[in-house]
Write a structure and sequence with these properties.
Strand order of the largest sheet: 1-2-3-4-5-7-6
Radius of gyration: 16 Å
Order of helices and strands: HEHEEEHEHEHE
Structural class: alpha+beta
Largest sheet: 7 strands, mixed
Helix content: 25-40%
Number of helices: 5
Shape: globular
Strand content: 15-25%
């Protein structure tokens, strides 16, 4: 069983690295000046601040579900993977500081979160996002769910219904439900 988890982590990492490589320009990459790790309870205020700045749902914040990117001991990006039901996870709360965007931080956080969920044996990973940010997640293996699908957990359906109203009022955009396509990670 431990070898299966390692294999899943390796395959997922290879998949996300290939996506990043294909989406990057031919310019020489900048040296990575940040590192990924699990959030700590001390980070919770920073996580809430990042989520508030991005106008995301502030509910369900628990530092144990978060991975963060740090540079010089400062949190510069975050995201969480939280259980919804017995067999599903929701990828949520992805935020990267404006000045640090475009360095692959968000994609690296998503990769780590997906790997974490898959290694825990959870194969259904959903997320809610604005329509305008859906292409980012599509490049990382997620696809937009058709309205009325019956495999979307009821709690996520309710969150999407309420979030759609908020997204229209606050962001002047529509909200979409996306699901990770694990078949894309097969070698």
């Amino acid at each position: 069983m431990p070898n299966d988890k390692i294999a899943i982590r390796v395959l997922t990492l290879v998949y996300f690295l290939s996506l990043l490589k294909n989406s990057m320009s031919l310019a020489a990459p900048k040296p990575r000046s940040w590192e990924l790790g699990r959030a700590t309870p001390k980070d919770e205020g920073i996580l809430r601040g990042a989520i508030f700045r991005e106008r995301m749902n502030p509910l369900f914040i628990d530092s144990k579900n978060f991975f963060v990117a740090r540079s010089s001991n400062q949190v510069i990006g975050c995201g969480q993977i939280r259980p919804i039901g017995d067999s599903c996870f929701e990828l949520a709360s992805l935020a990267v500081d404006d000045v640090n965007r475009g360095q692959g931080i968000g994609a690296a956080i998503v990769s780590e979160l997906v790997t974490d969920a898959l290694s825990a044996g959870k194969s259904d990973i959903f997320l809610l996002t604005l329509q305008r940010t859906a292409p980012f997640y599509e490049r990382l293996g997620f696809s937009i769910c058709a309205k009325g699908r019956n495999d979307i957990p009821i709690g996520l359906q309710l969150e999407a219904a309420i979030g759609s109203v908020v997204a229209a009022l606050v962001a002047q955009d529509s909200l979409v439900v996306m699901k990770f396509d694990k078949t894309e990670t097969a070698v």
